[in-house]
Amino acid sequence: MFVLALVVIAVAVVFGLRSYHLNTYTIPSASMLPGLEVGDRIEIDPDAYQDSTPQHGDVIVFDGAGSFMPYESETTLKRFQDTALGILGITHQDDAVVKRIIGVEGDTVECCDDAGRLLVNGEPLEEPYLAEPDRPASSSPFTVEVPEDRVFLLGDNRYDSVDSRALLGAPGGGMIQMDKIYGPVETIR
């Protein structure tokens, strides 16, 4: 009887931890101000893109390992710990990044028109969410075509954001593969 009670308590603890930690992230930087502030806790919908595709303007959480964050070597103990926690579904995702989708596959994104606005497929993009709406939407000019199965991402606080612009010359051109998207932000706490 004692063993059964212990198993029930262990299962309850695991599911409690999963429900609290799974799909919940804390904003670590000012790159998404003013909409997301440092310390905000956000929740995502990991199933949102199973039957639909990411859209312009979606704020998403994605795996930034190898692109927005360089790969780091891990000790055997760290890999074992991550694997064990992954089995339980409570692995902390250190490489999670949050940004806004500006371009989807097939789009041409360009900076900037005479008014300082981004152009998506030649049309000016209205961005009421920008941290500094009176400044140009980007400090550096660029023109990119978003390849198949990728998205082009920018932070809302453009003058304090490492995003697709910073990686234009890197493999992948700073654009994230669709399968690296964890999901769109659904709730801010």
What this model shows, in words?
The chain has 189 residues and is of the alpha+beta class. It has one domain: Umud Fragment, subunit A (Ribbon), CATH 2.10.109. 17% of the residues lie in helices and 26% in strands. The protein has helices at 2-21, 76-88; strands spanning 24-26, 41-44, 59-63, 96-104, 108-111, 118-120, 123-124, 142-145, 150-154, 176-177, 181-188. The strands form two sheets. Strands 1-2-11-3-4-9-10 form a seven-stranded antiparallel beta sheet, with no helix packed on it. Strands 7-6-5-8 form a four-stranded antiparallel beta sheet, with no helix packed on it.
Instruction: Please write the string of helix (H) and strand (E) elements.
Output: HEEEHEEEEEEEE
Structural class: alpha+beta
Q: For this structure, what is the CATH class?
A: Mainly Beta
Named CATH topology: Umud Fragment, subunit A
How many helical elements?
A: 2
The CATH superfamily label reads Umud Fragment, subunit A
In CATH, the architecture is: Ribbon
> How many structural domains are formed by the residues?
1
- Nearest-integer average pLDDT: 85
Question: Percent helix among the residues?
Answer: 10-25%
Q: Strand share of the residues?
A: 25-35%
In total, the number of strands is: 11
Uncertain regions: pLDDT < 50 for 5+ in a row?
17-21
Side by side, the strands of the main sheet go: 1-2-11-3-4-9-10
